[in-house]
Specification:
single chain, binds uridine-5'-diphosphate, Glycosyltransferase family 2 protein, about 20% strand, binds magnesium ion, alpha/beta, Glyco_trans_2-like, 10 helices, 8-stranded mixed beta sheet
C-alpha cells in the first residue's frame, strides 16, 4: 500500500499544473515520503489540463492522472480521486496552490502528535479573494454551523489530511449531493484544526462562479440540516397567528360598520401570503429535487481513462 496519496481535483487548471506538480513533489519528499502518489483528476476541463496531466504521468511514475467523462463538479471530481487513491494517509488539496503544499510536514506532525484521524486546514486569512467572496463565505460558514446538528468547523475548506480509516468511512457514504467537508465532520474520530493563511491563486481565475457557489451552499444546507423546513413551518405558524388577528379586526370593522374600504390592506395580505407560499414551496422543492436525485442512484461520476500509476489495477468507479 502506498504511504501517502495527494488528491487534486482540476478544472481548467493547465497553467497551475506544472508548478503544482513541482511543489507537491517537493512537499512529499520533504515530509520524508518516497512512497507517495499524486492523484490528479481532470474534471472535464475545456483547456489542455488533461494533456498536461498525462504528460506529467508519463514523466513521473508518482503521478496518476484520471480523466472524467465530463465536468462533474468539484466535490464529485474529488470523490473520484479519493475512490481511486491507495494511500495510508491522504492529503486533499486544490489545484490552484491557494493552500500551501509546504504545510504537509507540519500537518503530518500534527496528525501524529495528536493521534488524529483528520487534520483540517482552517483559513486564518484569505489573500487575493474579493470582498464579496470573503463576506459570503464568512456568512455561509456561520449560518451553516447554526443550522446543522453536527459541528461543521467554520472557515474550513477541503484542504485536509485524513487517515485511511477516516477515508473509508467517508467513501461508505453514497449521497449524490456531496458536501465533503461536512461529511468528514459527520464521521467523527479525532479531528484537529490546523490554522493557516490562504494564498492567492497561482494562475487563472476561480472556478466557482456565483451559480456554483449557491448550489454548493444549498447542498450543504439541505444535506446537513432540515432547519430551512422548520423555518418554513415557523413562518407558516406566525402567519396563521397574524391572520387570526386580522380576522378579529375584520369582524370588529364589520360590526362597527366600517367594512367597505380596505382594498389596500386586502391586496397587501394577498400579495404577502402569495409570496410566502411561493417561498415555502421553493424551499420544499429544493429538498424534493435532491430526493429525486438520490432516488435515481446513478453513479457519482464516470471515469473515461486513467494514465500512470502502473501498479494501480483496475478503475473502480462507485
Ligand atoms: N474544480 C473542479 N471542478 C469544478 C470546479 C472547480 O474540479 O467544476 C476544482 C478547481 O480546479 C480547484 C478546486 O476545485 O482545484 C477549487 O476551485 P477554485 O480554486 O476555483 O475555488 P475557490 O478557491 O475560488 O473557492
Ligand atoms: Mg481556489
Amino acid at each position: 500500500m502506498t504511504e501517502l496519496s495527494i488528491v487534486v481535483p482540476c478544472f481548467n487548471e493547465e497553467a497551475c499544473l506544472p508548478e503544482l506538480h513541482r511543489r507537491l513533489s517537493a512537499a512529499a519528499l520533504s515530509a520524508g515520503s518516497s512512497d507517495y502518489e499524486l492523484v490528479l483528476v481532470n474534471d472535464g476541463s475545456r483547456d489542455s489540463t488533461w494533456q498536461v496531466m498525462r504528460g506529467l504521468a508519463d514523466m513521473d511514475p508518482h503521478v496518476v492522472a484520471v480523466n472524467l467523462s465530463r465536468n462533474h463538479g468539484h466535490q464529485l471530481a474529488l470523490t473520484a480521486g479519493l475512490d481511486l487513491c491507495g494511500g495510508e494517509t491522504i492529503l486533499i488539496i486544490d489545484a490552484d496552490l491557494q493552500d500551501p503544499p509546504e504545510l504537509l510536514p507540519a500537518m503530518l506532525a500534527a496528525m501524529h502528535d495528536q493521534d488524529a484521524d483528520v487534520v483540517y486546514g482552517v483559513r486564518r486569512s484569505r489573500a487575493g479573494e474579493t470582498a464579496f467572496k470573503r463576506a459570503t463565505a464568512h456568512g455561509f460558514y456561520r449560518l451553516l454551523s447554526r443550522a446543522t446538528e453536527i459541528d461543521i468547523p467554520v472557515d474550513t475548506g477541503d484542504f485536509r489530511l485524513m487517515s485511511r480509516r477516516a477515508l473509508n468511512a467517508l467513501l461508505a457514504m453514497p449521497e449524490q449531493s456531496r458536501f465533503i467537508r461536512g461529511m468528514v465532520a459527520w464521521i467523527g474520530f479525532r479531528q484537529v484544526p490546523f490554522p493557516y493563511d490562504r494564498d492567492q491563486r497561482f494562475a487563472g481565475e476561480t472556478k466557482y462562479p456565483l451559480r456554483k457557489m449557491m448550489r454548493f451552499a444549498f447542498d450543504a444546507l439541505t444535506g446537513f440540516s432540515s432547519a430551512p423546513l422548520k423555518l418554513a413551518s415557523h413562518a407558516g405558524l406566525a402567519l396563521s397567528f397574524g391572520s387570526l388577528l386580522i380576522l378579529a379586526y375584520i369582524a370588529y370593522a364589520f360590526l362597527a360598520g366600517r367594512s367597505i374600504q380596505g382594498w389596500t390592506s386586502l391586496m397587501l395580505v394577498v400579495v404577502l401570503l402569495g409570496a410566502v407560499q411561493m417561498f415555502v414551496l421553493a424551499l420544499m422543492g429544493e429538498y424534493i429535487g435532491r430526493l429525486y436525485n438520490e432516488a435515481k442512484r446513478r453513479p457519482l461520476y464516470i471515469v473515461q481513462e486513467v494514465a500512470g500509476g502502473e501498479a494501480r489495477t483496475g478503475v473502480r468507479p462507485l
